[in-house]
Design brief:
Length: about 170
């Protein structure tokens, strides 16, 4: 089938994948994750994509940059979120958790792998950058443009983020 990965052919070749097959597999995973996040946005559950920012009294109505899914920060304190996301020192005053106003579409973001790969790349120590270090491995995406958002929770230092808490 066009656009789908031929698993039987892949197995017969001992798992060696062509560039085209890697792209098809990546697209398949992207479509599955997009569907999961879209459902999460509709239901406002742990699968929804969220943006975590340093605490502020006036959270923005539009955001850009990196985001993850809510399930990777639930039950965590801001300090623990820093470790998961690789944004050390950014949430010392607490965190604001933002949700996107509508479901994201495939062209709204770029997959950046996991937080243990800052910017989706192998980590190379940089003495000038002590804020963006490898995280503990939550999936991460980067918005392709600014997106409307709203505050769903503020989390004070030392307090765990509970789904549904404001």
């Amino acid at each position: 089938m066009a656009g789908h990965l031929d698993i039987n052919g892949l197995l017969q070749r001992g798992g060696l994948m062509s560039t085209d097959e890697v792209e098809k597999l990546t697209n398949s995973f992207t479509e599955a994750k997009l569907s999961e996040m879209s459902g999460g946005t509709t239901l406002r559950n742990v699968d929804q994509p969220v943006k975590v920012i340093p605490y502020t009294d006036h959270p923005p109505a539009m955001v850009s940059g990196y985001f993850t899914q809510q399930k990777f920060i639930c039950g965590k304190t801001p300090a623990e979120m820093e470790q998961v996301l690789g944004i050390f020192g950014k949430l010392s005053a607490g965190a604001c958790i933002l949700q996107f106003e509508s479901a994201l579409r495939g062209y709204d973001y770029v997959n950046k792998a996991y937080t243990y790969l800052p910017d989706g790349k192998e980590y190379t120590p940089d003495p000038n950058d002590n804020c963006y270090l490898p995280g503990k491995g939550a999936p991460q995406w980067q918005l392709a443009h600014a997106v409307k958002c709203s505050l769903i929770a503020t989390v004070k230092p030392g307090v765990r983020y509970v789904l549904g808490a404001r």
